[in-house]
Amino acid sequence: AVVSTQSTGAHAYRMYTDYNGLYRRLDFTGPTMIITMKVTSLACSLYDGTHRKEEELNSDQKMLAIRRVPSLIEYLSYTFCFTSILSGPTFNLQDYCKFIDGTDAIEGKAKPSGILPSLIKLLAAVFFISWTFVFDSNLGPFFDKEWRNSHSFLYVAGYLYSAEVIYHCNYYFAWIIADSVSNLSGFGFNGYDEKGKAKWDKITNVYPIGVECSSSMKLLVDSFNVGTARWLRRVCYERCAYYPTVMTYLLTAIWHGFFPGYFGCYMSFAFFLLTSRKLRRYVRPKFLGSARLKMFYDVLTTVCTMILGNYACIQNRLFTFERVYELYRYFYFLPHLVCLFLYIFCPSPPRPKKE
Asked: Model pTM?
């Protein structure tokens, strides 16, 4: 409660001092969001381990359940871990303690060095941030009516799409750098693959190809800000009795702050995700009859996912209600109206019974 209140106050202060989002500065709200994730994850794991019966927990909750209150040193070290305090990623206490005491290595094998994976990720981070110096991600021209009127609808839509893709590179840079620093310190080792190659993806927070080339909203969500998606699933989605998807994305918006653009972004994501989930269950089986039909389906869903995903993501940095409404009005509310039509009139196939 203390951490959530402090984070809420930080967001309210930021919104009061910079409602239009003109400064776009890195302030103290970022670290408070990271701390909120860690503390609430710890609280849920402690509650599962001390107040719930074993049969009430799913496999993930059983693995993460904590049976004792961590010491002050463990708590502070975990909460303020320097490799993730600024931009994440978040991780659970068990993995962090195993890294600290050296038990994260595979039994009978020496823990491999994280230097090479760290350097590879460092180069990847430099690659992505370099795009932001070459291409423009500014959305300012869109709000200039003369600029909009002097270009075609497709040109404006293409500009917004490309600007948002370039803007994603800022996230890729921050999260891959954090992952690189963690690997360099030895944190992030995740065993070996089938070929015996060491995996360093335990706390990887983003998969850029998955973000930009996903064939469904679910895959897009699973590839972007992975640690936060995992946190939301564990603290909200799995514990919410009613409308878990909507409530999870509402929590996401509140966790980010109180700007109208945040709510427009994440509630749009919730709506698009629910619609795509319903369509996938009904439509996809009809395209599995041949390889060509399946390829057509995959291409079509990838294009739709990229358009809807970037349309929703853009709202995350528009901040004000006026800008979000102007975006909706320019596109005639079509993404939302089309999804609403499909969600209402698409039949709901029966779900397979769980054993």
From this structure: 0.93
